[in-house]
Amino acid sequence: MDCLEPDLFQYPDTQGVRSFREEIAKFLTDYARATKELRPEHITVMNGCCAVFATLSTVLCDPGDGYLIPAPHYGGINSKMWLYGGLQPVHVPLSSEVTNEESHPFQLTAEKLEAALQRAEKQGIRVRVLVLINPNNPLGDIYPAQLLKECLEFAHRFEPWRYLRGVQFSIMQCSDEEKPPLLSPVLCGCSEEVACRGLSLAFV
């Protein structure tokens, strides 16, 4: 027992153990090539990405609000967003058929986001969140930085919005001038980002 630190015998900080968050901040600052050093007090550790989605769904929106999400996508998101926040998905269909305007199957574009938003508005759904999982689960597509910026610009036109991103860190690499003034939580799940399948650990 002498090898264990005394604070390990107490309830930890609900935001996550401070020393762990410090290491996460160092790792992400280097790994994501962030333009500014990340601070541990801005990081919260949770029990997997679904727990993060569930928590954020209760604080970013009101029950009955909608969220845009490209489809196909990981099904666990819908159940957690509905169960805890009462939110409904507004799917952005991605087709396997390539049109003249596309370069590859299942291609996401800002125009597809716009079309899905208009459909939701006609149905009386107030869309408040854009969810992007990058790399896409289950497709594995990696969204380029230019597309992510276009998605940010799209979301910024429709305040009050939240832009919820998973796993990928291109937004950290944007300069302050390039970043729209928009609440943009960034999620990172260990299963996807560091290939630790089965490790139910995520931070936002």
UniProtKB/TrEMBL annotation:
The entry's keywords: Pyridoxal phosphate
Statement: the UniProt record of this protein carries the keyword Iron: no
Pfam annotation, one family: Aminotran_1_2
InterPro entries in alphabetical order: Aminotransferase_I/II_large, Ethylene_sulfur-biosynth, PyrdxlP-dep_Trfase, PyrdxlP-dep_Trfase_major
Organism domain of life: Eukaryota
Domain (Aminotransferase class I/classII large): residue spans on this chain: 7-157
GO molecular-function terms, A-Z: pyridoxal phosphate binding
Entry-linked PANTHER family: AMINOTRANSFERASE CLASS I_CLASSII DOMAIN-CONTAINING PROTEIN (PTHR43795:SF51), BIFUNCTIONAL ASPARTATE AMINOTRANSFERASE AND GLUTAMATE/ASPARTATE-PREPHENATE AMINOTRANSFERASE-RELATED (PTHR43795)
Name of the protein in question: 1-aminocyclopropane-1-carboxylate synthase homolog (inactive) like
Gene, per the UniProt record: ACCSL
